[in-house]
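thread: overnight batch results

M.L. [08:02]
morning all. the overnight job finished for the chain we discussed friday. pasting input first so we're all looking at the same thing
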Amino acid sequence: MTENEKQHTWARTLGIILATFIGAFLAFYLAIDLTINRMLSPEYHIKKMEKMMQKQERSFHKFEDKMMDNPFEPKMAPMLVNLVKEPNEYKIVVDLKPLGGDEKNINVKYDNKLITVSGEMEKTTKHEEKIMNFSQSYYLDEDVNIDKMTKEKKGNNYIITIPFEEAE
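M.L. [08:03]
and the structure it wrote out:
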């Protein structure tokens, strides 16, 4: 290899190193410049502030909901017990979903034309204990035959049938 070829190889290597260094510097400068310009941009800070305010608002609403939720105040549940009068019988339909689907949680009492359907269920989880109870009473006009009362579970419904005789 001649002296001229050696100088040419070194010059080429030095040129490649210098071009790589300048390219890396320009890429770094461009990335930093874009980041700084973005951070100094008012739109960037406005968007960031809006996101923070929305997060604070959601957090406040969650806190407000918890504070307004009195654990000692009874909750209004949807109607669990429905009375249906059919020819010659009353049907009382109890929704068992809120009671864990168990008809053993249902009590039926009859006293002097007043029928009361009540139920209770306790549900304990790792962090809380929920007690759900209800009672619904109905006054029955007809003379019912309480001895022929039947109870059966159909799906999530507990149906109590009480026959009566029509007054003539």
